[in-house]
């Protein structure tokens, strides 16, 4: 990206924003809600246009972003842990090192939920039951490599138990299965479960897989508080092809940070508002690198593709 191109960016044409999931989902909604504010804080004639490229837990969009020109006119929403985990357990066309992280936008704890009438109220109850009857309890999640799936793998490993995990194509499907009693538990995020007791069928939260209790769930203990080392947030942020010039990356990061502090945006952020967690791209990259040992261990317990 030449100095002349940096000087023109982002005014001379629209910035494409790749989203690896279908329109209407959480990632898409976040991108479309943020876009007008990022435009505002980039200034000039900046324009962001969201493009949905769903498939393979975001990998299709990541591959497209990896191969896009490094001119600042293609950016993407990336989802963790899927982006980092996929290449660890299967052959993939995507290389996380080909992207540069600009900023983390949110970090949403994974939570384990059950029907309110479930006989299980703590992780201890669940582990004890699985020790007596390995594989007897069923757990829904949103697919291989997602935060829910990896949180359940960690629960299995840390608890020394065997559970039966069932992938779904989205949280609405796993919740419907839970409502109907077809599964015993579902691993979702706090943003997807704003008030468990007021769902179509009342639910309860057994644990949150986070370093500390979320502000929105002050009375729900973490897995660690219950003796199980299980931390697995769902994170979203913005990335660009690795070759994008530093000044453009810094300007985009500043616009994202300003967006997350904008009172008007915060009113529109909906379920994302309580879990917004800005972090500069290089700091986020260091955090992700620090989790690689855990992810590799989890990948080692996966069947190879």
Please give the count of helices: 11
Q: Please, what is the CATH homologous superfamily of the largest domain? A: Bordetella uptake gene, domain 1
CATH class of the largest domain: Alpha Beta
**CATH topology title of the largest domain:** D-Maltodextrin-Binding Protein, domain 2
How many strand units? Answer: 10
How far apart the termini lie comes to 37 Å
Gyration radius, to the nearest Å? 20 Å
Q: What is the overall silhouette?
A: globular
How much of the sequence is in beta strands?
15-25%
Structural class: alpha/beta
What low-confidence regions span 5 or more consecutive residues with pLDDT below 50? none
Biggest sheet: strands, sense, closure? Answer: 10 strands, mixed
- What is the N-to-C succession of helices and strands? HEHEHEHEHEHEHEEEHHEHH
CATH architecture of the largest domain: 3-Layer(aba) Sandwich
**Total domains:** 2
Mean pLDDT: 92
Range of helix content: 25-40%
